[in-house]
């Protein structure tokens, strides 16, 4: 499974250079997983950019969403990653799921570097 963060997921909703690669990955049946934070992030983007919330829901229906628990929060603190709060929580979630996560799909350079530093390969959709 590919861990999907908001910087990548948003590109499926907002036309950007990487949009077609992400849409193709979903169309090809790639399996994605993410923290439930992704739902909040995508709907916040939909609000800010006046996008259809149904599109966000459709995308989220194709992602296995996992809940945050106290262990995830504690891991995010222990990582001392220097990341912003939500990125630290995404990284902690991806690490916890490392037995099923094959790669991390992000367009956030700081999260990408932190994922690599913790042994998580980055997804390449090119």
UniProtKB/TrEMBL annotation:
For the ligand (Mg(2+)), the binding residues are 5, 87
Necessary cofactors: Mg(2+)
User: Which keywords fit this entry according to its UniProt record?
Assistant: Hydrolase, Magnesium, Metal-binding, Nuclease, Toxin, Toxin-antitoxin system
Q: Name one Pfam family in it.
A: PIN
**Top enzyme category:** hydrolase
Q: What is its EC number?
A: 3.1.-.-
Q: Where is the PIN domain?
A: 2-116
Q: Name one GO molecular function term.
A: magnesium ion binding
Which HAMAP family does the protein's record reference? VapC_Nob1 (MF_00265)
Q: What is stated as this protein's family in its record?
A: Belongs to the PINc/VapC protein family.
Per the entry, what this protein does is: Toxic component of a toxin-antitoxin (TA) system. An RNase.
Put simply, this protein is called: Ribonuclease VapC
């Amino acid at each position: 499974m590919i861990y999907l963060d908001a910087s990548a997921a948003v590109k499926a909703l907002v036309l950007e250079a990487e949009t077609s690669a992400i849409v193709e990955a979903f169309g090809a049946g790639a399996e994605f997983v993410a923290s439930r934070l992704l739902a909040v992030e995508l709907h916040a983007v939909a609000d800010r950019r006046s996008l259809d919330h149904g599109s966000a829901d459709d995308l989220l229906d194709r992602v296995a969403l996992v809940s945050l628990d106290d262990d995830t929060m504690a891991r995010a603190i222990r990582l001392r990653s220097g990341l912003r709060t939500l990125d630290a929580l995404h990284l902690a979630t991806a690490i916890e799921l490392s037995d099923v996560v094959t790669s991390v799909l992000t367009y956030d350079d700081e999260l990408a570097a932190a994922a690599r530093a913790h042994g998580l390969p980055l997804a390449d959709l090119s």
